[in-house]
Specification:
With 297 residues, this protein is mainly alpha-helical. The chain has one domain: MetI-like fold (Orthogonal Bundle), CATH 1.10.3720. The chain contains ten helices and no strands. Helix 2 crosses helix 9 and helix 3 packs across helix 5. The chain is globular.
Length: 297
């Protein structure tokens, strides 16, 4: 009887200790959950502040005419920035045309053909290094390679500078996307008699396409908002672009130029151009994600 009582008492103390530890764990979990949620909301404050400020400052001048008219001269009112939207779209398209095939094909080689070779490690190292260099260096590079030989700033030079800027992002994100594709899909494809090339282009790439598009859209967002490389290579033009080999307007340079002028109307138009730039990048991102996610399903 004494042994049974002792066992019962020991069991009771053990249960109480386990219950106490369980309560401590629950309290710690609740505390850190609250901390994480609070920090998450704090990170949204700057984002919502920027969006609110853009809406407050940019909406008053937002009307259809700003998309079809040319910028006003300093001190004058009216006009728009249609040429800047055109120039931004052309240079970002050129950047994607140059950087996307090179970045995706390089990532395929790194991940599918030679993931652990010295060349692959060197390419990864250089790509990671390029993601951290100042964007103005890309502008200086394109200035030396294209602007100086041709003797003029141009949309082509701006597109090359933005391509150099976005290439590392596309390469690294594409490689991570390919790494996320299960090996079982590759093995099943090989088991059915497919070659490596068929497996890559019919199985791996379609499976990784939504994630690849996310990386490309990150490159688009960065390219569309860059000022220094475009200022070096494309300069600015108050008129509509008629050739790739002439100075070209862009939203980022227009925002920079107008925000430094001592005229209220031009400063307000810079806010409107900022709102349009953010809206265009956001719409492009959302549209691409919806389209390619639907294709995947």
């Amino acid at each position: 009887m004494a042994d049974a009582a002792t066992t019962t008492a020991f069991t009771g103390r053990s249960l109480k200790a386990a219950d106490h530890l369980s309560r401590i764990r629950i309290l710690r979990n609740t505390f850190w959950t609250v901390v994480c949620v609070t920090v998450s909301f704090l990170t949204l404050i700057p984002l919502f502040s920027i969006v609110f400020l853009l809406l407050e400052k940019g909406i008053p001048l937002l009307k259809p005419s700003v998309f079809s008219q040319l910028p006003p001269a300093p001190g004058l009112t009216g006009g728009g920035f249609g040429n800047a939207i055109q120039g931004t779209a052309v240079m970002v398209a050129l950047a994607l045309l140059f950087a996307t095939p090179l970045g995706v094909l390089s990532a395929i080689y790194l991940n599918e053909y030679s993931p652990k070779s010295k060349l692959s490690n060197a390419v990864r190292f250089v790509a990671k290094l390029l993601t951290g260099i100042p964007s103005i260096i890309c502008g200086v590079f394109a200035f030396s390679v294209i602007v100086l030989p041709t003797g003029t700033a141009s949309a082509l030079a701006g597109g090359v500078a933005l391509a150099v800027l976005t290439l590392p992002t596309i390469l690294l994100t594409t490689e991570q996307s390919l790494m996320g594709v299960p090996k079982a899909l590759r093995e099943a494809s090989y088991g059915l008699g497919a070659t490596r090339l068929q497996t890559i282009f019919r199985i791996v790439l379609p499976e990784a396409l939504p994630a690849i598009m996310t990386g490309i859209m990150l490159g688009v967002a960065r390219a569309a908002g860059e000022t220094a490389p475009v200022l070096f290579t494309a300069a600015f033009n108050q008129y509509w672009m008629k050739s790739l080999m002439q100075p070209t307007g862009s939203l980022s340079v227009l925002i920079y130029n107008f925000s430094t002028l001592p005229y209220d109307y031009q400063i307000q138009m810079a806010w409107t151009a900022s709102l349009v730039l953010v809206a265009l990048v956001t719409i492009t991102n959302i549209t691409a994600q919806l389209v390619f996610s639907r294709r995947r399903r």
